[in-house]
Amino acid sequence: MNTKRLVIAGGSGFIGRALAGEGLKHGRQTVVLTRSPHERTDGPREVFWDGKTPGDWVQLLDGADALVNLAGRSVNCRHTPENLREIAASRIRSVEAIAAGIARTAHPPRVWVQAGAVGFYGDRGNALCDEDTPPGNDALAEVCQVWENAFHSVSAPNTRRVLLRIGFVLGRGGGALPVLAKLAKCFLGGAAGGGKQFISWIHLADLTGMFAAALEQDDLTGTFNAVGPNPATNAEFMRGLRHALHRPWSPPAPAWAVKLGSRLMGSEPSLALSGCRVAPQRFRESGFQFQFPELPAALENIFGNGE
Predict the structure, then answer these.
(1) Would you say the C-alpha torsion 247, 174, 66, 162 has a positive or negative sign?
(2) What are the pLDDT digits (tens) for 15-42?
(3) Domain membership flag for residue 237
(4) Distance separating alpha carbons of residues 303 and 14, to the nearest angstrom
(5) Within-domain flag for 78
(6) Contacts with 304 (C-beta within 8 Å, 6 or more apart), sequence order
(7) Average pLDDT over the chain, rounded to whole?
(8) Strand pairing report for 128-129 and 45-48
(9) pLDDT at 305 exceeding the cut of 80
(10) Rounded-to-integer distance, Cα 81 and Cα 272, Å
(11) CATH number at residue 94
(12) How many domains does the chain fold into?
């Protein structure tokens, strides 16, 4: 019996490691495309790719059951015009390289799941965004638009395609949550700015479940919001995090302090001071069952011992 092959482009990061682990657990032959491959005796096979041109990795797409693309430069940097251009280019190049690779295959992947981001909606205040909500007009929203346009313009008629707009992912192994937890442990876990900006969060276990649904359910196609059903304001989120870590009330950080701290760390203040309230409408309509729909239970699962 042939083992189903799962190819994960840009799969060496936080989400990719989780998806690779799930793939192996379910008996898939799992391959990670990365700029820095390592030879392993366990875990997924790692193969070099440069994220922008077809190479030897293309042969792994031929006959593959499923493909996931997570590749792209992190947005956790100063959003200078040069950096924004590189963030957009890294995402577009990876999509174009994969499309070119698929075009060279005799047996293209059955399904391609592409990572996107809820940054597509921009800073929307209290407005609730579903998959039909138009894009925002800030710099990151524009990056997300051109990224999605590159994916939607691909010609791959024999491959089902799904795009997941991913929110703030909660897990121990990476992402921004460990940074916020470190601040909270140091009694600096107050709300950022006014604290009313929304965080559309999702537990890593539910995110991997959404990827699994997108890979396995042939009726799922198009764009889906990969977020939990109960977004929280920044103030609510930080209060929940302090509670999970057994830390007392902390004073809020005014916007000027967030801007100063972000710049000292080489990050972008808007990542903390803006937000959007996003609903997983299409996943709910598909019958997806969340393991962690509520923030307190999600944080308790991650920080059950308070550390």
Answers:
(1) positive
(2) 999 999 999 998 899 999 999 998 877 8
(3) no
(4) 17
(5) yes
(6) none
(7) 94
(8) unpaired
(9) no
(10) 19
(11) 3.40.50.720
(12) 1
Query: How would DSSP label each residue in the chain?
Result: -PPPEEEEETTTSHHHHHHHHHHHHTT-EEEEEESS----SSS-EEEE--SSS--TTHHHHTT-SEEEE-----S-S---HHHHHHHHHHHHHHHHHHHHHHHT-SS--SEEEEEEEGGGG---TT-EE-TTSPP--SHHHHHHHHHHHHHHT---TTSEEEEEEE-EEE-TTSSSHHHHHHHHHTT--PPBTTS-SEE-EEEHHHHHHHHHHHHH-TT--EEEEES-S--EEHHHHHHHHHHHTT------B-HHHHHHHHHHTT--THHHH---EE--HHHHHTT---S--SHHHHHHHHSTT--
Does the residue 297 lie in any domain? no
Q: How deeply is 306 buried, as exposed, middle or buried, from its count of CB atoms within 10 A (0-12, 13-18, 19+)? A: exposed
Task: Please check whether residue 28 lies inside any domain of the structure.
Answer: yes
Q: What are phi and psi of 95, to 5 degrees?
A: -65, -45
Phi-psi region of 16 (alpha: psi -120 to 50; beta: other; left: phi over 0): alpha
Among 145, 129, 124, 168, which residue's Cα sits nearest to residue 275? 124
Facing residues of 226 across strands?
A: 166
Show the domain range for 95.
Answer: 5-170+201-228+279-291
Backbone angles phi, psi at 52, to 5 degrees: -145, -15
In this structure, is the dihedral angle defined by the CA atoms of residues 221, 65, 208 and 217, taken in order, positive or negative?
positive
Q: Render pLDDT for 181-208 as a digit per residue (tens, 0 to 9).
A: 999 999 999 999 999 999 999 999 999 9
| Cα–Cα nearest to 16, from 252, 193, 208, 188 | 208
